[in-house]
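Hey,
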Amino acid sequence: MPEDTPKIIVDDDWKSQAQAEKEKLAAQDAQAKAEGPGAGPGGLPEKLTFDDLIKMLATQALMYLGAFPDPQTGKAMIALDLAKLHIDMLGLMQDKTKGNLSDDEKSMLDGTVHELRLQFAEIVKAVEKAKAEGKLDASGGGAIDLGGGPPGM
């Protein structure tokens, strides 16, 4: 066989790369469908709604009321001043959006603010009682470390 004959090299690697990319995109589409309609990368909604804003502020308020552990320490913390700030922001939204919300939006906002204010009042009473009984150091820097999990939730 003469060695002057040109060798034909078939690069099948590009076919496998294209197939792998196609499978990767199909998997991403399947994941997006599983996360729900309107979900973007990381499960975040592609289009934010008024309800999303209410939920975000309410979640922050609940976190500062000790309902969720701090993601860095794993301990529940109470920071009444920050909880009040988020609840007050929701109250401000109530005032500033009066007459401009749908019935569902108004109901959600009103219910959320009402529930958060009730929980805030209960936590304040519990903290004051714990301070009076000497179970808490009143000289803390504003945040109260609850150690384990959320208080009574």
